[in-house]
Specification:
With 178 residues, this protein is an alpha/beta fold. The protein has six helices and seven strands. A five-stranded mixed β-barrel has the order 2-3-4-5-7. The radius of gyration is 15 Å and the shape is globular. 39% of the residues are buried.
Length: 178
């Protein structure tokens, strides 16, 4: 079923999403990859604030290529999500409601998603140039020294994603194997 969702991604919106739903996201989302996750995790472990509010937000596992002249952002395809698994349960505990990436997630992440009422979306790998057309604004907000892995605040319009793991642990990756 096709669903159109405006951020923030509240618990009520998460409750209406099932594995297999096609979703078009609009509003504000954030980017963070491996190095940014490690830095955020270490910052939170010290009890210090991170660069953006996690509550009801979505992180896109993205390290875009440089923007060409006249573009907001370069190619914006997802990266492999499992590299963030070590850090994800803490982010979910602090209010993160959605993640966008590609590939499987660990049992610990899936259990934490269930506990914290969150969802995991997949974006189509290899379609980064097409996905970038849905990004209307991109701004580095933290960790600029990380280059492409800096945290960005994105404004997106109808970014196409698929719910692959819902808050009830229904997992499209597992179902495809059976």
């Amino acid at each position: 079923m096709d669903k159109y969702i405006e951020t923030p991604l509240t618990e009520e919106k998460v409750a209406g999403l099932d594995a297999g739903d096609f979703v078009y996201l609009s509003g504000t989302i954030y980017t963070a990859r491996d190095a940014a996750h490690k830095r955020m995790y270490e910052t939170m472990e010290k009890g210090e604030p991170i660069p953006f509010e996690l509550q009801d937000n979505i992180i896109y596992y993205l390290g875009p290529s440089p923007a060409r002249e006249g573009q907001v952002i370069g190619s914006a395809g997802p990266t492999t999500s499992s590299r963030m698994d070590k850090y994800t349960p803490l982010l979910l505990e602090k209010g993160l409601k959605g993640m966008i990436g590609k590939g499987r997630r660990s049992k610990e992440v899936i259990d934490s998603m269930h506990q914290n009422h969150a969802v995991y979306f997949a974006a189509i790998g290899g379609a980064g140039a097409l996905l970038s057309k849905c990004i209307k604004k991109a701004e580095i907000i933290a960790y600029e020294d990380l280059g492409t892995e800096a945290i960005r605040k994105l404004e997106v319009e109808n970014l196409p994603v698929i719910v692959v793991i819902d808050q009830h642990k229904k997992n499209m990756y597992e179902e495809a194997l059976n």
